Automatic annotation (TrEMBL):
A GO molecular function held by the record: hydrolase activity, hydrolyzing O-glycosyl compounds
Domain Glycoside hydrolase family 13 N-terminal: 15-84
Organism annotation: Polaribacter cellanae
Pfam families: CBM_48
SUPFAM superfamilies, per database record: E set domains
InterPro entries (UniProt xref): Glyco_hydro_13_N, Ig-like_fold, Ig_E-set
Protein name according to UniProt: Isoamylase early set domain-containing protein
Amino acid sequence: MAIKKQFLKNKPVCKVTFTVPSENAYNVAVVGSFNDWNAASTPLKKLKNGSFKGTVNLETGNSYEFRYLVDGKFVNEAEADAFAWNDYAGAENCVIKL
């Protein structure tokens, strides 16, 4: 898994690209505080190499919690900037700091 950050010079926005290698998966989405944890908001597109990829524009100067939803199961990003415990989920969420 990977996260790529591209900060824009003329706007307080960062283009964040999420990549999830998951050849056997059918549906992958990134859910988090930036999209109200809505799986339909940010589906990732399956590439020919079997990985899933998608880009989200996020406001800089903030931190966002997120997780991947792979065929209905939550998966964490190993390369996240940090992790935060979530009592509601009973698990850690990934954190991206911009």
